[in-house]
């Protein structure tokens, strides 16, 4: 039977991790997978996370099963963090998931249970695994234009025109902040216009919020999501704790379904718990408990937020340094978009040949579409990258 399987193309981002590891060259630079690294190239455990784990070790007395949809302390703390304290918990269904990817998958499963004919509107480009998951599920995808390759900014007129074509029963996937892979984000005014379009056509927004705290700040990065939540009666939000808590391997995420009334919320909550049961039964507990412990303790929370701000500030400084180096080397301001982008990523706009040249001649690894992970840099490697970008002819 298993011999009938067709070979699967490896995920491009994960394959790049393997290629980087196998490269014996000294001084190689990894700007591939979206993992935060400090100046030494290490992905640290955040201070508050370590402390939360210590406390858990001291106080936990059992490893028996916990909630099928997650634990209330995690759900509540995440609802507050994403939507703001005092969000409408009575009409919000919550599901702890296996990371942000699990939340995306369960959101799409939920939407398809509610409407077997749904189409999903997806930004062009988007995180490749969005597309891969939808293809695997057999969901029809409609691309909406998003990124202007010339300016490396959002092509908002094109986006508006394309998402206007969505209708009730469709899902429009939006990146809440720190757009992956481009780094180009909507302004609050643009979010307002998106809300007006979705109000008019009745499509359901699905917001992927994987980088809250990595762009303009914890509150600022949730502003677009909150605006949509205030205006649209039904909203799906898939959030990840991988990046902002640095707990990648603990697989911690949440799906929120904002509903128009409590009866719909109860239906959605039941369907979501059912989906967990059908796919993996209980969601991972450990990471969710870390997050709940940090968010529900004033001291740990303050320390976590301070460290998150250090991480965010470090990435911003690297962006500015890279834009400055490139301004000097190119004698132009055509790379200033790097300082304007937010989050871990920027799409450079290099051709596949230029990306290959940077890898072959300079041992610099970035995703083939020229997405680079800013956090893979430090102040010594920024000039190396800047030189490579210019010598590759970008
Ligand atoms: C990325 O885009 O690099 C991250 O979201 C990690 C992943 O799973 O692809």
Write up what this structure looks like:
By secondary structure, the protein is an alpha/beta fold. The protein folds into two domains: 11-46 and 300-391, Aspartate Aminotransferase, domain 1; 65-296, Type I PLP-dependent aspartate aminotransferase-like (Major domain) (Aspartate Aminotransferase, domain 2, 3-Layer(aba) Sandwich). The protein has 14 helices and 13 strands. It has a seven-stranded mixed β-sheet, with helices on both faces. Strand 5 (147-148) and strand 6 form a beta hairpin. Helix 7 packs parallel to helix 8 and helix 11 packs across helix 14. Bound molecules: (2S)-2-hydroxybutanedioic acid (LMR). The site of (2S)-2-hydroxybutanedioic acid (LMR) has 6 residues, from loops.
> Structural class of the secondary elements?
alpha/beta
Mean pLDDT: 97
| Assigned CATH class of the largest domain | Alpha Beta
The best one-word shape is globular
Return residue spans where pLDDT drops below 50 for at least 5 consecutive residues: none
Number of helices: 14
| Percent of residues in beta strands | 5-15%
Percentage of helical residues? Answer: 40-55%
Assign the CATH superfamily of the largest domain: Type I PLP-dependent aspartate aminotransferase-like (Major domain)
Report how far apart the termini are. Answer: 48 Å
The hetero compounds bound to this protein are: (2S)-2-hydroxybutanedioic acid
What is the number of domains?
A: 2
CATH architecture of the largest domain: 3-Layer(aba) Sandwich
Evaluate the radius of gyration: 21 Å
Main β-sheet, spatial strand arrangement = 2-10-9-8-7-3-4
